[in-house]
Amino acid sequence: MIAASFVSRKVTVSRTLIKICGITSADDALAACNAGADALGLVFYEPSPRGIRVQQARDIVAAIPPFVTVVALFVDESAAVIDRILEQVAVDCIQFHGSESAAFCEQFGRPYLKALRVRPGQDIAAACQRYPGARAVLLDSWQPDLPGGTGTTFDWGLAPARLARPLVLAGGLNDSNVGAAIRALAPAGVDVSGGVERAPGQKDIPKMSRFIAAVRAADLSDGAVQ
Predict the structure, then answer these.
(1) Is the Cα dihedral 187, 193, 194, 196 positive or negative?
(2) 95 has which bridge partners?
(3) Per the UniProt entry, what are the Gene Ontology biological process annotations, in alphabetical order (predicted)?
(4) Any idea what DSSP says for residue 146?
(5) Got the DSSP string for 2-66?
(6) HSE toward the beta carbon, residue 56, CA cutoff 13 A
């Protein structure tokens, strides 16, 4: 179950890739795929309201059609736990959303995304260069003691015009602002969770459809080909 364009070494597709994160059920996974998602995020972080266990993840993955990327999200988890989950769940890509080093991220032999939480004064370009093996860098909002799922945007003006790795944009995205985000930053991909939910961990099908339609409309306005 892999969309080669989402985890390839060079992101060269002419449309913005879409990852819907925080999937907690097979029904939500299928709905996201049917709406047009390129990738689904499974959160293996117990404090999160979107956190899931191994059997739950296996049930979700079994329902996902081919050519949709399965991304496993971890936050400063131990290597032993990550290895155990990778042995039991068919994962295409790992997303590291904590303070993991490049050496830590690369030991699992899987394509990976590295999340960076954006705040004023941070040298994002330098931080990005510390992860040369990452398939992409995901920029997310920063809040103390909350590694992700903040539901808030960050100042997109803080993102450098050029980064060493492809950019996936996250942080408070929804169908009302994702078009502006794409026009501002032209990211390789966008990542949404709370912006397509009716409650934490419960996806809303109309919201997912509107979000994906907004992304495709922005692509067309920029001359991208679906």
Answers:
(1) positive
(2) 73, 113
(3) L-tryptophan biosynthetic process
(4) B
(5) --HHHHSSS---SS-EEEE----SHHHHHHHHHHT-SEEEEE--TTSTTB--HHHHHHHHHHPPT
(6) 15
To which CATH superfamily is domain 14-221 assigned? Aldolase class I (3.20.20.70)
- Set 140, 175, 191, 219: catalytic member: 140
Give the span between the Cα atoms of 218 and 15, in whole angstroms: 9
Query: What is the chain's pLDDT, residue by residue, as a tens digit (226 residues)?
Result: 444 456 655 555 579 999 999 999 999 999 999 999 999 999 999 999 999 999 999 999 999 999 999 999 999 999 999 999 999 999 999 999 999 999 999 999 999 999 999 988 789 999 999 999 999 999 998 665 655 555 678 889 888 888 889 999 999 999 999 999 999 999 999 999 999 999 999 999 999 999 999 999 999 987 554 4
Q: Is 140 a catalytic residue?
A: yes
Reply yes or no on whether 128 is catalytic: no
**Close Cβ partners of 200 (under 8 Å, ≥ 6 residues apart):** 22, 49, 50, 149, 194
Helix/strand/coil for 112: strand
Residue corresponding to tokens 């990550």: 82
